[in-house]
């Protein structure tokens, strides 16, 4: 385990988790402010327990499979996941797709929670279900990243999990302090960076799993990061130009 | 059944957004694996080809989407 592995693993898990937890926080805040905090916090808490169980089950289970098979399988999934994020981030940065707006998501969710009717005196099942569902949906992506990044090398699960837990604590802390959606978090830029990191990890591990020899061994991860970043920046320029040409009056 | 379908759709959605894009990535991985298995290509060159192909797929797919 070298710094060339650990640093991108922790960074990818931390930044990806921030994006996902910020999105979950928006819905939990909407649920809590409209329907009460008991249902919202119990739903989110129950989902976190489920997510921790998934990490505890799948993390060690993957260690039982031969490393090159795990690298090939998980690397392919990581590549599909990371390149999906990166493509979307390129299109958003180029102005082709709309940027994700937490304030708008909060308003929409608040409206939906009001429309769901009063919570009454008993336990609020609707609030619980909404908070549980969003935390599981966003959290599953975090679990996948932690397990996948951790599975690529011996001893990487703990640093990746540490990155995710640090992100969770930071988002919870900011949520408690600010008490409104964290719309100032530059989600698209974060997704751009995470897309670059996960695509690089995925490509590296798929290559390792196939028995390829990366020039520079582990340090080629950094070269892949620079390579994907360069292509993505070029993609933003090209897509932006194409989109502007399309919008320009003929 | 509906819940299972939702979970399945969500799981697939984690990895596949644009079907052609995801298929191109998988096909390129299979092509490199085939090259390594059936030819005497240098593992260094195969690794470089792997990245170049993925970069080209990314750029082409983003550009194609921006033209729509």
Give the overall shape of chain B, derived from the CA principal axes. Answer: flat
The averaged pLDDT of chain B comes out at 89
Largest sheet descriptor of chain B: none
Mean pLDDT of chain A: 85
Distance between the termini of chain B: 35 Å
Low-confidence stretches of chain A: none
Pairing-aware structural class of the strands and helices of chain B? Answer: mainly alpha
* Structural category of chain A: mainly alpha
Count of folded domains of chain B? 1
Helix content of chain A: over 70%
**Biggest sheet descriptor of chain A:** none
Helix content of chain B: over 70%
Strand content of chain B: under 5%
The count of β-strands of chain B is: 0
**String of helices and strands of chain B:** HHH
Low-confidence stretches of chain B: none
> Span between N and C termini of chain A?
57 Å
Q: Please provide the ordered H/E string of secondary-structure elements of chain A.
A: HHHHHHHH
Cα radius of gyration of chain A in angstroms: 20 Å
Globally, the shape of chain A reads flat
- Pair with the most extensive interface? A-B, 42 and 34 residues
Overall description:
The complex is a heterodimer of chains A (250) and B (68). Chain A has one domain (3-244). By secondary structure, chain A is an all-alpha fold. The radius of gyration of chain A is 20 Å and the shape is flat. Chain A has eight helices and no strands. The relative contact order of chain B is 0.11. Chain B contains three helices and no strands. Chain B has one domain (18-67). In chain B, helix 2 packs antiparallel against helix 3. Classes of the chains: A mainly alpha (250), B mainly alpha (68).
């Amino acid at each position: 385990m070298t710094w060339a592995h650990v640093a991108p693993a922790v960074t990818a898990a931390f930044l990806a988790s921030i994006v996902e937890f910020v999105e979950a926080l928006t819905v939990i805040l909407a649920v809590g402010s409209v329907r009460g905090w008991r249902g919202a916090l119990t739903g989110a808490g129950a989902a976190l327990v489920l997510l921790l169980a998934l990490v505890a089950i799948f993390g060690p289970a993957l260690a039982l499979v031969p490393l090159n098979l795990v690298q090939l399988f998980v690397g392919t999934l990581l590549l599909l996941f990371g390149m999906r994020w990166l493509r979307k981030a390129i299109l958003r940065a180029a102005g082709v797709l709309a940027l994700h707006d937490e304030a708008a998501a909060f308003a929409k969710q608040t409206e939906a929670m009001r429309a769901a009717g009063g919570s009454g005196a008993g336990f609020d099942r609707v609030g619980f279900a909404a908070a549980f569902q969003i935390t599981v949906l966003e959290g599953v992506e975090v679990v996948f990243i932690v397990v996948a990044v951790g599975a690529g090398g011996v001893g990487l699960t703990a640093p990746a999990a540490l990155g995710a837990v640090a992100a969770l604590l930071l988002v919870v802390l900011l949520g408690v302090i600010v008490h409104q959606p964290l719309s100032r978090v530059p989600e698209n830029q974060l997704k751009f960076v995470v897309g670059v990191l996960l695509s690089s990890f995925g490509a590296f591990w798929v290559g390792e799993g196939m028995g390829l020899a990366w020039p520079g061994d582990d340090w080629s991860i950094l070269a892949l990061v620079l390579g994907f970043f360069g292509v993505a920046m070029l993609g933003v320029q090209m897509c932006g130009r194409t989109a502007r040409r399309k919008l320009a009056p003929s | 059944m509906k819940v299972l379908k939702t979970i399945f759709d969500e799981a697939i959605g984690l990895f596949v957004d644009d079907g052609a894009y995801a298929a191109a990535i998988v096909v390129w991985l299979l092509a490199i694996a085939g090259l390594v298995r059936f030819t005497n290509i240098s593992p260094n060159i195969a690794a470089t080809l792997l990245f170049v192909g993925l970069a080209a797929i990314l750029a082409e797919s983003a550009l194609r989407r921006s033209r729509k």
